[in-house]
Amino acid sequence: MFKRKKLLPEVPIYIMMGGVGENFGGVTSVALHRSSVFAELDDRPIGFLTTSANHAADPSGRARELKAEGRLAENVYIRNAWNDLASMPDDDLSALSSGVEDPESEVPNLLPYEDEAEAVRTNDEGKILQVDRFRADGSRFISDRRDARIPGVLGGRLVTAFRRDGSVAQQWTGTRFVYHAWLDWLTQGETSIFIVDSANVAVPMIEYRRSHAVVVHPLHTGHTVGSEPPGFTLSKSTYPKYSKLDSFDLVTALTESHASELRAEGIASDNLVSLSNMSASEPVKKIEPRRRTSGVMLARLADQKRIDHAIEAVGLANRESLDPITLDIYGEGELRPALESQISELNLDDHVRLKGYAPSAREKFGEASFSVLSSLYEGQGLVLLESMANGCIPISYDIRYGPSDVITHGVDGFLVPDGDVGQLAATIQRVALMDSAELMKMRKAAVKRSRAFLPRSITKLWGEVLKEALEAKQPVRTVRGTVEVVTCALKDESVEVRVDFKGNGSWPDWAKLVWTQRNGTGYGRVPARVHQDDGAYQISATLPLATFAPLENGTIDFWIDVKVEGNPLRMRIKKAGDRLPVREGRFELYATKHKSLSLRVINAGTV
């Protein structure tokens, strides 16, 4: 009997999330499904790692619950950082990688144990200043101070781990260092892959650079503000990671359109690939009959999903329909009261139903005629794949990423101009009025299209890119360097810069000129040329001033990014020189008081 060839690299693979609550959204669903598919197709254990203290109590019990619901494969286990710290032997706790060179032997103001898993201290405004966590036997294992600089004043963090006898085992100046120490303990230097799905967990993982660890970050959402066009401002929530994507060994974008934008803007470099989500539903072999006017929607009840648009559209569609058009919405969230009011005000109680969270909600795609995606933005829209796999015709706003990469308009689904509620209503009505033959043709086309996203096909692609990432991994070392201005000018409506680069490494793999908006989230990069002049490394780049046209006023700071033997480094451009400032129209290139290179953008009304 032949042994089936493994699809994935034969090293430990871990999926990382903050936690898995009772009600969870699309990213958690994707992570759970992928971990299960990996485990089942390769017949191997997969670790699902969580970092939230709120999910520390019983990760094994949570895994059993998810398996009972059919959400997690038997070969997937869940571990939590804080749960492991609580159960870790004292010797292991003491041997964790240190965050503080000389840990304090005595920690003041510890909170008393009162038969609870944690004790909390807050200030007068209710903000948390300290959390102490306890083992089942009552011994303290963590004291997390958030007022480490001045007692009683929020600021400065010190996390202390304790042995069972109450003595200090280790200290760190932030939870990210706790997570790093935990992962070092977990892997013991063994080559491992970490797929960090959570955006919140990705930020502390930016600094987890180890020679034995390949850190992968799938991008589940776009990088700019809402549905704004690309090219200037990152969203506040995505700025910390999108401005440091080079620190990951591999970054995956769900669609080629998103990947292309990231490359065009210089945000991503040679570590970016396009890799789609996989469908969580097997394509149906037989398309069951269904009422053509029945719709379904799976979404969190949150602003991003614009569920109010879908509700309004169903109301408009029903004005012209002889048969009642219905929409069942599965999901929970903070907008439930507002959406209930909207349904009532529009007299749609018989047409729109908020069904709440249901683990089996995706099965409803097999019963509904159409699905609705009205989001402001999505990474790809997993619900589109699940809808199509069940012969449920997707009706989606044509937002920037996802829908147009999946749906062929009028063939296997419908694309509606973004935000156009009237057109959304008209398209829902169109499906409700289509004849049976035309509907069946579209349903079959949708099922056929979904086969491109089958788990085995996508897992095979994952295996290929992970193997390439392992092969490309270079030893991690600290790269140091400086860049100093040789020439800088405003010329031909561009910023032209040439700098000397001095560092402790070899010739850079590549270089980019970086700009960041001071007191804002504007960010971008352009390719730079590395060359030698009189034996010295020099880096040259040109940046169009039109890049900053969206900015009414403000300050732009300039940096140089390089990658040296696989290790990234960002350096502020120094020694801007005495020839500055120089000005062209609204733009003034100048040296800061520390002689760093910056650009001042002046309000057009004051020019």
Produce the secondary structure layout.
Elements: E1 13-17, H1 26-42, E2 46-50, H2 59-68, E3 76-80, H3 81-87, H4 90-95, E4 118-122, E5 128-134, E6 140-145, E7 158-162, E8 168-172, H5 175-187, E9 192-196, H6 199-205, E10 213-219, H7 239-242, E11 250-253, H8 256-264, E12 272-274, E13 294-298, H9 307-319, E14 326-330, H10 336-345, E15 352-356, E16 370-373, H11 382-389, E17 393-397, H12 403-406, E18 414-416, H13 421-433, H14 436-450, H15 455-472, E19 481-491, E20 494-503, E21 510-517, E22 523-533, E23 536-544, E24 554-564, E25 567-574, E26 582-584, E27 587-591, E28 597-601
Parallel strand pairs: 1-2, 1-9, 2-3, 9-10, 10-11, 11-12, 13-14, 13-16, 14-15, 16-17, 17-18, 19-25
Antiparallel strand pairs: 4-5, 5-6, 6-7, 7-8, 19-20, 20-23, 21-22, 21-24, 22-23, 24-25, 24-28, 26-27, 27-28
How large, in whole angstroms, is the Cα Rg?
Answer: 27 Å
Q: Roughly what is the average pLDDT, rounded to an integer?
A: 92
Percent in helix: 25-40%
Number of helices: 15
Account of the 3D structure:
InterPro entries: Glyco_trans_1. Keywords: Glycosyltransferase, Transferase. Pfam families: Glycos_transf_1. 42% of the residues are buried. With 607 residues, the chain is an alpha/beta fold. Helices cover 25% and strands 28% of the residues.
Summarize the structure.
Its EC number is 2.4.-.-. The chain has 607 residues and is of the alpha/beta class.
Name the features:
607 residues, alpha/beta, Rossmann fold, 4 domains, seven-stranded parallel sheet, seven-stranded mixed β-barrel, 25% helix
